[in-house]
């Protein structure tokens, strides 16, 4: 059985052809990151236009590289939620036409479900497991109980950690820094933090009072911005030219984000253990999403998992970010179990906002 996966939920146009074992037969990815980096953030209409210009070629390339013809496919899996409406629309429109034309079953995919399951393509991780997803658009903690069965323990109440790192990096104009010109905000902060003193600017860890699994990063960003504004005034430099303490601010930012993620993850582990949501044999925490590539954050999480006896698994960086491969794999997992497979002519809508699984965050908060 062969699955074509298509991803267009944000700023990557991705496609991949995969067999039932999870072997990638062919893939293609067009990233819009450079364009959005220049405009200082994603402009949805620009993202949509770039998806439109590239989707045909990306899908063709993935198919050609795999040596598979459309007729040989068993199904097409495409991200339909959550994400940017204009971006999701392009992938869905393309896929609906494609499945009708070739008379193939269609598998609508939840982008975060795909991130959560990717690890199983690389190594055997049995359900149930705990998963922390941290990226530019999301942050959530969930128990994965099955391919389409998730308990959502917590999510971000405002912005995502990657978004915070990107905005701090932009406020510091790190893109003009000689070492950082081609890096994402998160990567730039990780690099500069290596030579920084995290203790010089002691930022408060968010939501210190609440003992639940939800996240908040907007307040932290305000603290950081206020510090930058104050330092710029003290040193009499123009906005975005503060070099003297960029390393220290990067280190403190990274440290505080890591502390917040680690504390929330610890809370989730305690809740799962108290409610027998994880197996007693080899309980596992999977961490994925762009921010999961950060070594400092991984280290902080590994301290928590060691302390609580969990096994920590992080897929390699290229499988932590958006691509067609993870969507194809989700399609394979669903196809194997016969879950959510639709006929070619069914009317599917995209959903810009869609929580992953059953939201039990209030229960987690009440149990504290
Ligand atoms: P989505 O939430 O839909 O997955 P996205 O495209 O923003 O959206 P990813 O591609 O998974 O998410 O990740 C990109 C984010 O990860 C950016 O915010 C980037 O700054 C952050 N990031 C990448 N590398 C690192 C790193 N080494 N340390 C911290 N953050 C990082
Ligand atoms: Fe993603």
UniProtKB/TrEMBL annotation:
It comes from Stegastes partitus (bicolor damselfish). It is found in: Mitochondrion. The keyword Transmembrane does not apply. The keyword tRNA processing applies. Its cofactor is a divalent metal cation. GO terms for molecular function: metal ion binding; tRNA N(6)-L-threonylcarbamoyladenine synthase activity. One of its GO terms (biological process) is tRNA threonylcarbamoyladenosine modification. It catalyses: L-threonylcarbamoyladenylate + adenosine(37) in tRNA = N(6)-L-threonylcarbamoyladenosine(37) in tRNA + AMP + H(+). Its EC number is 2.3.1.234. The lineage of its organism: Eukaryota, Metazoa, Chordata, Craniata, Vertebrata. Its main location: mitochondrion. This is N(6)-L-threonylcarbamoyladenine synthase. It comes from the Eukaryota. Keywords: Acyltransferase, Metal-binding, Mitochondrion, Transferase, Transit peptide, tRNA processing. CDD domains: ASKHA_NBD_OSGEPL1_QRI7_euk. Residues 24-329 form the Gcp-like domain. Binds 1 divalent metal cation per subunit. Required for the formation of a threonylcarbamoyl group on adenosine at position 37 (t(6)A37) in mitochondrial tRNAs that read codons beginning with adenine. Probably involved in the transfer of the threonylcarbamoyl moiety of threonylcarbamoyl-AMP (TC-AMP) to the N6 group of A37. Involved in mitochondrial genome maintenance. The gene is osgepl1. InterPro entries: ATPase_NBD, Gcp-like_dom, KAE1/TsaD, TsaD. Belongs to the KAE1 / TsaD family. GO terms for cellular component: mitochondrion.
């Amino acid at each position: 059985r062969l699955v074509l996966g298509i991803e267009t939920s944000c700023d990557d146009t991705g496609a991949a052809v995969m067999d039932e074992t999870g072997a990638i037969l062919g893939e293609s990815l067009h990233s819009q990151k450079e364009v959005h980096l220049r405009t200082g953030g994603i402009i949805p209409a620009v993202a949509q236009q770039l998806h439109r210009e590239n989707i045909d070629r990306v899908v063709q390339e993935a198919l050609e590289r795999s040596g598979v013809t459309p007729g040989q496919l068993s199904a097409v899996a495409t991200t339909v939620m959550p994400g940017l409406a204009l971006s999701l629309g392009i992938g869905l429109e393309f896929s609906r036409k494609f499945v009708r034309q070739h008379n193939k079953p269609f598998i609508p995919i939840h982008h975060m479900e795909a991130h959560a399951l990717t690890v199983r393509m690389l190594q055997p991780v049995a359900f149930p497991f705990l998963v922390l997803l941290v990226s530019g658009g999301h942050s959530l903690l969930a128990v994965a109980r099955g391919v389409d069965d998730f308990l959502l323990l917590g999510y971000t109440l405002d912005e995502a950690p990657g978004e915070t790192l990107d905005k701090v990096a932009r406020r510091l104009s790190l893109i003009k820094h000689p070492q950082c010109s081609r890096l994402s905000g998160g990567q730039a902060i990780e690099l500069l933090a290596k030579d920084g003193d995290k203790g010089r600017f002691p930022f408060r860890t968010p939501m210190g009072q609440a003992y639940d699994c939800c996240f908040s990063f907007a307040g932290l960003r305000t603290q950081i911005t206020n510090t930058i504004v104050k330092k710029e005034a003290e040193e009499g430099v123009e906005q975005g030219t503060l070099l003297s303490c960029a390393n220290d601010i990067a280190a403190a930012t990274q440290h505080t984000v890591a502390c917040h993620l680690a504390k929330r993850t610890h809370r989730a582990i305690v809740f799962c253990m108290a409610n027998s949501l994880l197996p007693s044999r080899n309980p596992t925490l999977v961490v994925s999403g762009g921010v999961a590539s950060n070594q400092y954050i991984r280290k902080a999480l590994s301290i928590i998992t060691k302390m609580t006896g969990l096994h920590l698994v992080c897929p390699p960086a290229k499988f932590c970010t958006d691509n067609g491969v993870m969507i194809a794999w989700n399609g394979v997992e669903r196809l194997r179990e016969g879950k959510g497979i639709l006929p070619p002519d069914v009317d599917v809508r995209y959903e810009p906002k869609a929580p992953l699984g059953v939201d039990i965050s209030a229960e987690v908060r009440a149990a504290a």
